[in-house]
Design brief:
single chain; 244 residues; alpha+beta; eight-stranded mixed sheet; 10 strands
Length: 244
């Protein structure tokens, strides 16, 4: 089945709200997952359906910081809860010194951070991000001003699954980023899978025009997750709903 972008964002937001996520977090979750799904990076495959409840009391903890580097511990929370914080902290540091590295540790669904990084890249900086999971090593590089990254994956499986570390490099000097990217991908013995920024943009535009392909079971799981926030219909509620 196919659904529109707005339908998917709304369904995801309600599902995350139904799971107990706070306002702002559940709205971000809808945007993050939908963006990846439309770009062809399997947003639905990166989360549990129905969504899990938020990590109780988890707040980001600044483990280390200097002018150019910061290490944040997300406490096992979803990226939708703290990913934008890491992205904009990185941007602030890069604006001051021209180069910044942010490490977001102990976060769940780290791949979803790409949409937050896209928002920062559009402000005029170069960004690369790296992480590992049970599939392999993942990387994404944004050109300055770009909406979509060049994405790559190396198939060297890691025993870590949902909890991961994301390392993000941000700079206004492309030569510095190019050097960092080169050092990260010098592993010719491993199978490499790549998707260009142009391909991701084409995927997104096609989904925008033709609808987003969704597995019916996944769609049902999203709608079921929203039940806790829906108000039961009764005579009084229907009487205030406008003309019949």
């Amino acid at each position: 089945m196919k659904v529109s972008r707005n339908e998917m964002i709304t369904a995801l937001s309600r599902a995350y709200e139904g799971a107990g996520h706070e306002i702002g977090d559940y709205e971000d979750a809808g945007q993050l997952v939908t963006w990846l799904q439309m770009a062809g990076l399997s947003g639905f495959d990166r989360i549990s359906l129905p969504p899990r409840a938020p990590k109780g009391g988890a707040t980001p903890r600044l483990v280390f910081e200097n002018d150019d580097i910061a290490v944040l511990d997300a406490g096992g929370a979803d990226v939708c809860e703290h990913g934008s914080l890491a992205a904009y902290l990185m941007h602030s540091k890069a604006n001051k010194s021209g180069f910044a590295i942010i490490e977001l540790a102990n976060c769940r669904y780290p791949g979803l951070i790409l949409r937050s990084l896209s928002m920062v890249a559009q402000l005029g900086v170069y960004i690369s991000a790296y992480r590992k999971d049970q599939v392999g090593s993942h990387g994404a590089s944004f050109e300055s001003g770009a909406t979509f990254p060049h994405y790559w994956r190396l198939d060297n499986a890691d025993d870590r699954k949902e909890i991961s570390i994301v390392t993000i490099i941000c700079t206004n000097q492309p030569a510095l980023l190019a050097d960092a990217v080169t050092r990260q991908v010098e592993q010719p013995e491993l199978q490499r899978f790549e998707i260009s920024a142009a391909r991701l943009a084409a995927n997104y535009n096609q989904a925008l025009e033709q609808g987003i392909e969704v597995d019916p079971d996944q769609w049902d799981a999203l709608n079921a997750a929203a039940w806790p926030i829906l108000v039961r219909s009764d005579t009084q509620s229907r009487s205030g709903a406008g003309p019949m």
